[in-house]
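Worked example
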Amino acid sequence: MVAVRPWTEVLWTLIIGLSSLTDVLALPPPSANLLEQLHAHNSPFSPTEDRFTPHDPPVNWYALGDSYTAGPGTGEDYDEDKACSRNVGSYAVQLEKEFPFNVTDNFDFIACSGYTSADSLIQVRDVIEQEWADFMVMTLGGNDIGFSSIAKECLVKAEFFPGDCDVTLANAMRLLAATEFETNIHAVYDEIFAKLKDDRHYQLYHIFYHRFFNDATEWCNGKTFAIRNPKLSRPLRRKMNNLADALNKRLEEVAANYIRRQQGKASWNLAPRLITINPDKLTDEQGKTYGLFDGHRFCEPGITNLKDPSVWFFGTFSHDSLQKREGSTAKRLAAPEILTQTFHPRTAGFKAIKRVIQESLQKNRPAEH
């Protein structure tokens, strides 16, 4: 299935391009490999024996959903479908390269930037093979409320363009609260589990979204992503973080309601089949809650530049470490993906997400034999 970029993406390409012209003319050179700057989730990871999968290797899995799985901007294209912006720095590709179990695996990367629940429902029906996968990983739900477009509307739209951030945010909250939001995601869940074997060993991992900002610092109040963009005041940063929190909370409710509907089904009684991962609500060994991107968001203390290499999100026309396909010597083109990538995780952020998924897979696929 080939994705077609909607007209809104073309419009935002124009808006960001005009408002960020000075950034294009003064781009710093690409930073050193950002993976070396990880200080969390960077200790050596040890794969374990797979004693959960009820058949001989390989373990088969899909990565699907939207751009927060596709990984726009994180290196070279993974395949020829450029409209989907599947890149080799995505957490999914990193997970395949560092699989958490000592077995061979088969991986099908079908995530597509811009996909809504309706798009994913069609893809699951048409593309996913019946009873092939042992598990699936995905991000889904953000585009149902226009999450990426909201960030662009409120943060990088030049002041001479029409639109109102508060109106856009209010509309997103209405979409989030609507029954259709849950119904549409449940439809995708239903189709996925219809494609998996009806057995407790076959699972779906749904990964949620991230706050973009540290909203407590003062140094960022006068900063903008480009000329004539909104200033990043604490109230604006707080609004954007509140939206991310609301989206993740609603996704938690949607998943919990779905799991509740499965009560009494034999394949759901003995082990979790729908596992959610909220990167902004993790728990450490001492029971303390933290965010995976804490210390690596925009406007963190101790930095003075929105493009600081320690930030794990792309800003406007940001650079990343250059991830390449094996054996490739080609350089990645800067456009148009350099526009699509805005407010998505960089390779370093995806490495941290990969580590959390590795740990979750080992926890939720424990040794049984």
Observations:
- The beta strands are 59-65, 105-109, 135-139, 203-207, 274-277, 282-283, 289-290.
- The CA atoms of residues 295 and 311 lie 8 Å apart.
- The chain has twelve helices and seven strands.
- The two ends are 39 Å apart (CA to CA).
